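Fold these two proteins, one after the other.
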Amino acid sequence: MQTDIDPRSLIGRKAFDRLGAKIGTVDEVYLDDATGVPEWAAVRTGLFTRDAFVPLEPSELVDGSLVIPFDRALIKDAPDFGVGRHLSPEQELQLYRHYGLDSAAPGSPAPDRDFGRLAGHEE
């Protein structure tokens, strides 16, 4: 995903799966502790449902919406850690594994596992 975008501008955008099915609305954005780059988004999947964490790196902004290159069912089944607080490295690793992103392609660097803080919140 484009790394120079203001993470706060993602909040409130509609989110869609790889086939164009609506998942929900971006509720929160999480930044990498070391780089400050947006790394994860929490997407509110419905009025009375939970937020699903989605990786921002393979996702794209298309016509003002966040398109996540995974199936809706996989996104909705993502581990639920609640939102509004820092996630542990173990929780982030669970998310990487859930999306099949826990191993780098041969010859490429491993994903940064240093999970971040909530965008707009200073600790």
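Now the second one:
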Amino acid sequence: MDFPPTAGRPMSEAEAAAEAKRIIETEFRPQPEAPVRHFPTSFRDESPLPAYGDAPPVKQDDKRIEPAWAAGMAVASIGVGAGSTGLGCAAWLLFRGLSLVSVPGLERFVLIVIAPFAGLAMVLTAGGAAIAEAKSSSTTNVYEGSVVQNTQINNTSHQRGMFSRTRNDVR
């Protein structure tokens, strides 16, 4: 090992301070950090506008959000479908059990038992279709005419005490 020349004797105050400073500078040197990558969060179209006439058309993305009632209708239709599947399984088990019995006139009994379930399913389906039709709407937006761009900006500031307020009215 390579020891400093003071290994056999105690260091003076100046030597100890210089050695401590050297150790601190080499061991606790800050590591270079990775550069921070910045991403744009907004976009401003800086293309020049025509001197006169209509402004060129601009693509407007369709960002519709599904209304809450439509999501509710979807969930309700899944529930009705699952319920009708359960009723169908129950009817199948009922028919399977009744098919083992051979009593004259049993067909009338089965029709009387199943008719209310079929009528209920038919009424629920018709009601759901009527509600869906009543709530459905279509929107057609047709924009005609010239585009006007106003760039009047009113800026008012109020500074009192610790709190300040700035209001920008763009018209």
